[in-house]
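Supplementary Methods, section 5.1.

A reviewer requested that the exact input to the structure prediction be made available. We therefore reproduce it here, unchanged from the version used in the analyses.
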Amino acid sequence: MSDISAADVKRLRDRTNAPMMDCKAALVEANGDIQKAVEVLRKKNSAIQAKKGERETAEGRIAVYIDPAKQAGAIVEVRCESAPVAKSEPFVKLANEIAKQVAHNGAATVEALLAQPLVDDPKRTVNDRIGEVVGQIRENMKPARMARLTGELGSYSHHDGSVGVLLQVEGGKAEAQLLRDICMHITAKNPVSTRREDVPQDLIDKEREIAKTQALATGKPPNIVNMIAEGKIKTWFAENVLLEQPFVKDDSKTVGDLLKSAGLKIVRFIRYKVGEIS
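The structure derived from this sequence is encoded token-by-token as follows.
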């Protein structure tokens, strides 16, 4: 066929985000047919995706999405190979799209998520969309984990996407800023649990043993040793249990105080950090 026009190459690039030379090659192979060229690029992206699929994904991004109309939200970790890519616009956009996908449809497994039609483009699957970005950037990338919550929700994602929180509360309509502030607190303080009674007993036993050992080292009488140990445990709870932690923006109040004054109770929170074991 005759030479492919620059206008057609641009049209295909605008539609697929593929590199210019890839777009031109696809149009040549498709004899100038834009739709066929899109399919050519998808097949090429799938091949690139398969080739790079075994490469380690040590970097990534946490994305959070809430749909107020549906009262549904999701938090996802999407992995890639390098830190620069984790901060790149195409990857950030992809991670946000995947969070939106999970918020709308949920998914029991990553494999089920990949097979879903895209919320914003049902003619393509989530895997097709990931393949598009893989073809554009030439790095392996994939969802690593995800969670979906419904109800009264708040969220926070750190500016670099390294950590994020999705929070569910009950008790009435909550101010968005209050929920964001609590999510930011959870991001910073990484509580072990919401309430003292939710802390695993084996962890409490371990901390109590450490506290007693430290208290015995003071050489105080047994009754004083027990008081010192219990004081240390109380301090540990205040440092590690969300409702007992001093609020990061005003340490004269605990997170529990803030929620009580707003008439709210925490149902659940999910905190993801890139690279940690789920």
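The longest helix spans residues 34-52. These observations are discussed further in the main text.
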